[in-house]
Design brief:
The protein is of the alpha/beta class. Helices cover about 30% and strands about 25% of the residues. A hairpin with a 2-residue loop joins strand 4 and strand 5.
């Protein structure tokens, strides 16, 4: 479970361009819950995601993961529990290394860095099994360099790499926004399947109203640094695109 207690964050404090990005936000996200964050530009949704990840440290308040206080932990320390998928398909992979080598690095992400990076037969079979879930045929091309793949292929592989460690939380920052429509659908369908199959807790930031309604158990509307709406269950299922679009008016 993720719990935020009265989290606040102000950028450029005391300056003319001061921005109160988060204003005393309190939020609980249950284990295995899939939450979608929506909001306009500058609403605070990305800051909220980055605060959970540890990329942004809160000015005040507390953050807990399964009752462990992680408020002051930086991003690399939180990676024991948290994996991320970024908007840019080029982020999160080593472009000059092969698919297999990237997966080995991902599997060691939360372990001691002095461990040797092995890619033996057992590990290759594990990677093949996980990649095959994507239906892209990449499980037969493990020696291809990552930079030879399309943006959609890299983004999909990054998603699978997130489950190579012991992380139980996945944060998705507009993962399909840089992809063409067909690839974007594949990416989101793959994300939904992996989140369900592996029992992950997930938080998705998106500007896509269709995706916000189609995926996840719960939709949270962030506005002006605060939670304006928190809708789940049958209430979320009954939301219409036009209704959500009015939130941004």
């Amino acid at each position: 479970m993720i719990r935020l207690d009265n989290i606040s964050k102000t950028f450029n404090k005391g300056e003319a361009n001061e921005v109160a990005a988060l204003k005393s936000i309190s939020l609980e996200i249950k284990e295995r819950e899939f939450v979608v964050l929506v909001g306009g530009n500058g609403s605070g949704k990305s800051t909220l995601l980055n605060t959970i990840a540890g990329r942004v440290l809160a000015d005040s308040g507390k953050i807990f993961l399964d009752d462990i206080d992680i408020t002051k932990l930086k991003e690399h320390k939180r990676s024991k529990w948290i994996a991320r998928i970024f908007q840019d398909p080029l982020t999160g992979t080593a472009p000059d290394l092969s698919i297999l080598e990237n997966f080995r690095l991902a599997s060691l992400r939360t372990q001691k860095k002095n461990l040797s990076i092995g890619t033996g037969k057992k590990f290759q079979e594990e990677v093949k099994e996980k990649i095959s879930q994507l239906g892209l045929g990449l499980e037969t091309r493990l020696n291809r360099p990552m930079n030879s793949l399309s943006g959609g292929q890299r983004q999909a592989l990054t998603l699978v790499m997130a489950i190579m460690s012991e992380a139980k939380i996945i944060l998705l920052d507009e993962p399909s926004s840089a992809l063409d429509p067909k690839t974007a659908v594949l990416m989101m369908e793959s994300a939904q399947k992996i989140i369900r199959d592996y029992g992950l807790t997930a938080v998705l930031v998106t500007h896509n109203i269709k995706d916000a309604l189609l995926y996840g158990d719960r939709i949270i509307h962030v506005h002006d640094g605060s939670i304006a709406r928190d809708i789940q269950g049958s209430a979320k299922s009954s939301l219409q695109p036009a209704e959500v679009a009015e939130w941004f008016g």
